[in-house]
Structures are given as structure tokens and as C-alpha cells.
Design a protein that fits this description.
This protein has helices spanning 13-24, 39-43, 46-64, 79-93, 99-104, 178-189, 208-220, 320-335, 364-369, 385-390, 417-429, 434-438, 449-463, 466-475; strands at 4-9, 29-32, 108-110, 114-118, 121-124, 127-136, 140-142, 170-174, 193-198, 224-227, 231-235, 246-250, 255-258, 260-263, 267-269, 283-284, 287-290, 302-304, 309-311, 348-351, 356-361, 375-380, 396-401, 407-414. The protein is α/β, with parallel strands linked by helices and 479 residues long. Helix 1 runs parallel beside helix 8.
Length: 479
């Protein structure tokens, strides 16, 4: 008999969910984690970054209060207290993901690295552990690019930037994706100089029309954006008498001096050390190769979930909510033997800047590339009454719909755009007609009215057509 019904490698969002529901259903479960319980999201990602952003938003709100007639002095940033707030947010959530809680569920928690020694066995903490099923949920880590001169230069990733005891004087960020842009705006609002170096354009996966508004917002706040700029090398040369802690040398000859360098060029799955070949588990540099139900294509005992999974070669999706989605698929497929597969058609993603940038489903470019015949509906957020009341001047809702009114994608640039994303995810996921949104009764006033107004524009030409006007002309004579 195997030692465990299920062995889970990795105690991040996906692994914890898998261990919890399996133990709750009476299976004998082992959870192996070499680092911090809660994984990247709790300790180095979603939670600390949003806590830092909350502090930055507060500082920005104080500076902007004068436009409402509220005069406040320039905010003083107490970095020690700010760090305590960030760590306090982690500490508040940590008990939910703690070793003690999972032991209380009946899960055997093993704090060690794990690697395969056979298709049905791993080794951890000097023990060889056999299993019926194994779930690999080892997550991902920041990519450290091969940049000449990087070795001697102190550099940061999302795992180390929240440990800084003092604010950066001039933070240079390599990469203009979600992590880079969030950290850029946060540190700019907290009084740091910030330069973002991006080889392409910022937020490259998102709709350029929506990104334009975010770009304007970042530039207004003093963030320097170097788009289409490639980093050639870095150096730690300091001018005589002091100066910057590093110099970023671009291919075009420009040199930017800074105090700190944050690497935010993407993430890679944590495959090293797992010895997947011993477990007969196929993988590429993008992650563990699985079918649409997250089962290994080469070892039917093994499943992969979260950032490390590459279902059907479509590539990993490094989001905590995807990890939760994967856990639900895993429960149906692995435990109940029910058909279940990954479907990212309604997947939302959000860059938590201010304004936030959210995308659900397909962008306009992705829809056209997929061969869809589409209509584009837009409504400026600034034209809502709530925006007028709050002085919001930037924002847009952009809908990608078929000629018959089926929603394929939605992009939102607005304060708290992530709070609107769920509505669009529900519509796309459940294939609800656009009329469901156009007829939705929303509380007044809200920014979400922009979404309703955009949907309503799909039907306006039909309502105002000559035929409808003739019908109305006939109906007015009826008693």
C-alpha cells in the first residue's frame, strides 16, 4: 500500500487548496513545502504588493485633496511604519495558510525540498514516500535575465523588494508588465524617483487603447517610462565622491544612474530540483506538460496545478485565481473522476495601478487574430456621473462583441476596475447575451454605469431605426 493517497509538492495557493479538499474528503495527504507556507502570493506577491499600493494610494490622496478644497501638508512617509503595515497584512492572513491549521485538518506537513525517485515515489527530508496520486504545485519565480555586469550589482525581485529597510532613492525597474508598473507607481507615490525600462511597450499584453490612459497617468505622477529601450549592461561604477549605486547602460548609449534595480521581466516555473525525469513527468521550460484536465501526459499518477502547469501547451497563467480554478478542476478530475478541463475564455487579469487596468477574455487584437467578426463598443468612464462627482478624468470601458451580441472580451481602465471584472467574467463564462448587461439595473451613481452604457450602444442603432420609428408612430394611436 502507498504511504499516502495524495502527496502535494508546494504550499502556495494551488497546493493548499488541493491538500485541504483532499483531506476534508478523508484522503491521507502529505504536503511538502521547503519555503514559507502560503507561497509567493502571500509572502512576496499579491498581499505585500497590494498593502504597499494601499499606502501609496493614501499618500497620493493626501496630495490630491486640495482639488476638493481640503488643504493638507505634503505627506511624510514613515518607511518603518509602512513596512510594518505590509508585514502586518501578511501576518493577518498567514494563520489561514499555516502549518498548524493544515495539521489540524489531518494533513502531514513536511518542511523540506522534494524530488522524484520513481513514478510513484518522492524523497523529502530523508524519507522515501510513495503515493497513489501526486500534485505538483511548486509555483514560479522571477526570471533573472543574463545581463552583462549584473553579478556585482545588487538587484531585487518581488521576493526581496519588500525587505528594503529604507526607501529607494531612484528605483530602476527592468520590465513594464504588471509587477513593474505596480511597483513603479507605488514607489513614485511614496516619494522615490522611478524609471521603467521596457524593451517593447508597457503592459504589452493589454489593449493599446487602454494602455494609453494608464501611460498618461503614470507620466503625470513622475514615472519615467523608457519604452522600446533595451538594456545592454549594468555597472556598479560610482562617481568619485559618491553618487548612484548602479548605472543601467542602454543599447542606444544612454546611461541611467540609480540606487536600486528591480528585475520584473517575467516568471519561470520552479522545475529545478524536482528530478522530473525520475518521475517520468514531461516538462518544458514553460512548465509541466499536462492535458486539459491538468494530468501529466506521461505519468497518469501525477497532476500539476498553478503557475507550474502548462495545460495542452497553451502556457502557464501566473495568477492566484487561476490556481483556485485549477484546484476545482483537480477535485472533479482526480477525486471524483468527472470530466473537467481548463478553460481560460473568461479569465480576468488586473494590473492594480491607479487607474486599474483589467482585461477579461479576448482583447480586440486577439479576437481579430482568432478570426472572429467583431464589433467594438466603448464608453469613457469620465462621462459617468460618479466620475464627475469624484473628479475622475481618465478611463474607458471597451467591449469586444460578435455581430449577434455575444461578449468575447472586455477591457476596463478605471479606478477599482478589478471590482467590475467579475460581471464580465460571468457573462463570458456563462455565454450570457449582451442584453443582460444592457438591461442590468445598477445602483446610482457608480462607475460600472460605463459598462452598461457601452452595452446599450449595441442596441441603440436598432432602436432608432426607421422601422422602429414607424412602429412607434402606429402605436401612439392606440388607446
Amino acid at each position: 500500500m502507498p504511504d499516502f493517497d495524495l502527496v502535494v509538492i508546494g504550499a502556495g495557493a494551488a497546493g493548499l487548496s488541493a491538500a485541504a479538499f483532499s483531506a476534508g474528503l478523508g484522503l491521507k495527504v502529505a504536503l511538502v513545502e521547503r519555503g514559507r507556507m502560503g507561497g509567493d502570493c502571500l509572502n512576496y506577491g499579491c498581499v505585500p504588493s497590494k498593502a504597499l499600493l494601499a499606502a501609496a494610494h493614501a499618500a497620493h490622496a493626501a496630495r490630491q485633496a486640495g482639488r476638493f478644497g481640503v488643504r493638507l501638508p505634503e505627506p511624510e512617509i514613515d518607511w518603518a511604519t509602512l513596512r510594518a503595515h505590509v508585514q502586518g497584512a501578511i501576518a493577518r492572513i498567514a494563520p489561514i495558510d499555516s502549518e498548524a491549521r493544515y495539521r489540524g485538518m489531518g494533513v502531514e506537513v513536511i518542511r523540506a525540498s522534494a524530488h522524484f525517485v520513481a513514478p510513484d515515489m518522492i524523497e523529502a527530508a530523508g524519507r522515501r514516500i510513495s503515493f497513489r496520486r501526486c500534485v505538483i504545485a511548486a509555483g514560479s519565480q522571477a526570471i533573472v535575465p543574463d545581463i552583462p555586469g549584473l553579478g556585482p550589482v545588487p538587484w531585487l525581485t518581488n521576493e526581496t523588494i519588500f525587505e528594503l529597510e529604507d526607501p529607494p532613492g531612484h528605483l530602476i525597474i527592468l520590465g513594464g508588465g504588471p509587477i513593474g508598473l505596480e511597483m513603479a507607481q507605488a514607489h513614485a507615490r511614496l516619494g522615490c524617483l522611478v524609471t521603467v525600462i521596457e524593451a517593447g511597450r508597457i503592459a504589452g499584453r493589454d489593449d493599446p487603447e487602454l494602455v494609453d490612459g494608464l501611460r498618461r497617468a503614470l507620466l503625470r505622477e513622475g514615472v519615467t517610462l523608457l519604452e522600446g529601450a533595451k538594456l545592454a549592461r549594468v555597472s556598479s561604477d560610482r562617481p568619485e565622491g559618491g553618487g548612484p549605486g548602479l548605472v543601467a547602460h542602454l543599447e542606444d548609449g544612454r546611461a541611467i544612474g540609480g540606487t536600486h534595480l528591480l528585475l520584473a521581466v517575467g516568471r519561470a516555473p520552479r522545475l529545478a530540483g524536482l528530478d522530473l525525469s525520475a518521475g517520468q513527468v514531461a516538462a518544458t521550460k514553460r512548465g509541466i506538460t499536462t492535458d486539459a484536465g491538468l494530468r501529466s501526459t506521461t505519468n497518469p499518477r501525477v497532476f500539476a496545478v498553478g503557475d507550474i502547469a502548462d495545460p495542452e501547451g497553451i502556457g502557464p497563467r501566473a495568477f492566484t485565481h487561476v490556481a483556485s480554478q485549477h484546484a476545482g478542476i483537480l477535485a472533479r478530475r482526480m477525486i471524483f473522476r468527472l470530466p473537467a478541463k481548463v478553460d481560460y475564455a473568461a479569465l480576468p487579469r488586473v494590473t492594480y495601478t491607479d487607474p486599474e487596468l483589467a482585461q477579461i477574455g479576448l482583447t480586440e487584437a486577439e479576437a481579430r487574430e482568432a478570426g472572429h467578426e467583431i464589433n467594438i463598443l466603448r464608453f469613457p468612464v469620465a462621462e459617468t456621473d460618479r466620475a464627475a462627482a469624484e473628479g475622475i478624468e481618465e478611463g474607458l470601458v471597451k467591449l469586444v462583441v460578435t455581430p449577434k451580441g455575444r461578449l468575447l472580451g472586455a477591457g476596463i481602465l478605471a479606478p477599482h476596475a478589478g471590482e467590475m471584472a467579475g460581471t464580465f467574467a460571468l457573462m463570458i463564462g456563462r455565454k450570457l447575451p449582451l442584453s443582460a448587461l444592457a438591461g442590468l439595473v445598477l445602483p446610482y451613481p457608480t462607475l460600472a454605469e460605463a459598462a452598461k452604457r457601452a452595452a446599450g450602444d449595441f442596441y441603440a442603432p436598432k432602436l432608432m431605426s426607421p422601422l422602429v420609428k414607424r412602429v412607434v408612430g402606429w402605436l401612439k394611436h392606440l388607446p
